[in-house]
Amino acid sequence: MGNEHLFEPVLSSWLKSDGPESDVVISSRVRLARNFKDWNFSGAGLELLERVREVFGNEAFPLLEMGDLSLLQRGMLVERHLISPETMRRHEFGAVMISEDEKASVMFNEEDHIRIQCMAPGLQLEQVLEEAFKLDDAFEGKMPYAFDKRLGYLTTCVTNVGTGLRASVMVHLPGLVATKQLQKTIEAIRRYGFVVRGMYGEGSRPASNIFQISNQVTLGKTELEIVQDLSDVMEQVIMQERVCRTKLKQKFHIVMEDRIFRAYGMLKHSRILAQKEAADAISDLRLGVQMGYIEHIPSQKVNELILFSQPAFLRKFAQRDMNELEEKVIRAAAIREILDTY
């Protein structure tokens, strides 16, 4: 099938290294929604996949069809942020192309014909937008898009009409959560036309105090303006998060130190760990690493904990399905193995 590395317990390249502002910003992502000219916006199905193969052949990345993947493999792609939960559900006609370094993926037959996604560590929105444009031009050069001079790119959902751009950053905000400033920050972000969601985007819940901040408006601004506006908002969020962390360390130093090392001890020695329990402890550990309480654990190890404690990866780790208790036992074992040398 190819791309076997996608289903192995290794980090994607965009999680292996730290980027700018990585103490707060885990990653940056842009996604472009497009539909092809003269094709029905829904129901393209297998015919579209056949056309993509015919036009691109081996020029693009290998094409993985959801119908050829197990539920576990599709779940792992979601947990790697390489496909959306909606693509995972499109097991009849959904497909994805993924670059070797996993920084780029192209989804087919999701809500729109095509969704181009590029990612990078830290706050690098303009850079990932540039990479997405390169892929966008490559596809449009051979299969023209549905485009209106007044409205811009035409999409299935009217909220994506215009640029079709969804720019987002994945952020770790334990300081704002602990000081009860998060809701105030979310309300301010909304006033600027951005929205805060869970770790896996729309419909997901926050885990490990990790959130996605993305634009709501796609019409009336250029792609670069949207990205620049989000970068400006992120500068304020980063500053507020760092101020909250500093206050916590100054006012509650011993309490914070105790909380962080308790979390570390739980992760390193527990035999049973529920998903939320693990997520809370991993958040505290990441905070401890970034604030200098714990200096011997690299941030990439914390990224491994975040990814490999998710349900699909646990089943890959165990090589079998499991009940609720078994999942908790395997989660604890996987986390202990990652932290074994620390």
Automatic annotation (TrEMBL):
Query: What is the protein name for this chain?
Result: Protein-arginine kinase
Q: Tell me the CDD domains matching this sequence.
A: bacterial_phosphagen_kinase
What does the record give as EC number? 2.7.14.1
| Organism of provenance | Listeria cornellensis FSL F6-0969
Q: Which residues cross the membrane?
A: none
- Keyword field: ATP-binding, Kinase, Nucleotide-binding, Transferase
Q: Where does ATP bind?
A: 27-31, 81, 115, 166-170, 197-202
The record's Pfam families line, in alphabetical order, gives:
ATP-gua_Ptrans (PF00217)
Matches recorded under HAMAP family: Prot_Arg_kinase
Q: Which GO terms describe its cellular component?
A: extracellular space
Protein role: Catalyzes the specific phosphorylation of arginine residues in proteins.
Q: Which reaction is the catalytic activity of this chain?
A: L-arginyl-[protein] + ATP = N(omega)-phospho-L-arginyl-[protein] + ADP + H(+)
- Principal EC category: transferase
Domain (Phosphagen kinase C-terminal) ranges: 24-244
PANTHER family attached to this UniProt entry: ARGININE KINASE 1-RELATED (PTHR11547:SF38), ARGININE OR CREATINE KINASE (PTHR11547)
Checking InterPro entries in the record gives: Arg_Kinase, ATP-guanido_PTrfase, ATP-guanido_PTrfase_cat, Gln_synth/guanido_kin_cat_dom
